């Protein structure tokens, strides 16, 4: 059940139009989440700026794996459909890696450390311990990289919360509930 309607093109606030049009052009359609989020130009454009900046952080497989882990912890079904789709089609992650990422893991040892750390940050609201930091550092991540992981957790949590609150209609292929994977 959606809690607010996605905006039609003529309803998009002027200050959200350029950003939404850029996403529509890049994706090939306007996802309902974005057409919903665009109702607040301030929040939408702030998120889009953060997304653009963080698209340079780490590598695409690690970013998508973190998005899956965070969305699973936060129970965001919309984001799980989006990140499963992008992980498969853009990051070229195989199905078993997508499932592992949802569980907060990865086959690649370095990516596994980042995804496990991101899951702990999400579950514990940033309250990690020295051992958690040591593990991710020992995997080869610098403190700057760790800050990028935390920023990705925050960015994905933002969209998780927006989607959990407003529950836009899903427009990506459905994924199985976590209990069945």
From TrEMBL:
Pfam family, one: CMD
Residue ranges annotated for the Carboxymuconolactone decarboxylase-like domain, each copy included: 44-110
NCBIfam families: ahpD_dom, peroxid_rel
Protein known as: Carboxymuconolactone decarboxylase family protein
Source organism of the structure: Herminiimonas aquatilis
């Amino acid at each position: 059940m959606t809690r607010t309607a996605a905006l039609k093109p003529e309803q998009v606030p002027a200050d959200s139009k350029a950003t939404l049009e850029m996403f529509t052009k890049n994706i090939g359609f306007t996802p309902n989440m974005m057409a919903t989020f665009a109702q607040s130009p301030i929040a939408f454009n702030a998120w889009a700026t953060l997304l653009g900046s963080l698209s340079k952080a780490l590598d695409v497989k690690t970013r998508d794996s973190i998005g899956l882990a965070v969305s699973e912890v936060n129970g965001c079904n919309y984001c799980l459909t989006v990140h499963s789709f992008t992980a498969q089609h853009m990051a070229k992650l195989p199905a078993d890696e997508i499932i592992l990422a949802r569980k907060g893991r990865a086959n690649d040892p370095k990516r596994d450390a980042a995804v496990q750390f991101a899951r702990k940050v999400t579950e514990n609201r940033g309250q990690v311990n020295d051992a958690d930091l040591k593990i991710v550092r020992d995997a080869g991540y610098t403190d700057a990289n760790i800050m990028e992981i935390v920023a990705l957790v925050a960015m994905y949590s933002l969209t998780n919360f927006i989607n959990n609150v407003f529950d836009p209609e899903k427009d990506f292929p459905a994924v199985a509930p976590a209990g069945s994977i």
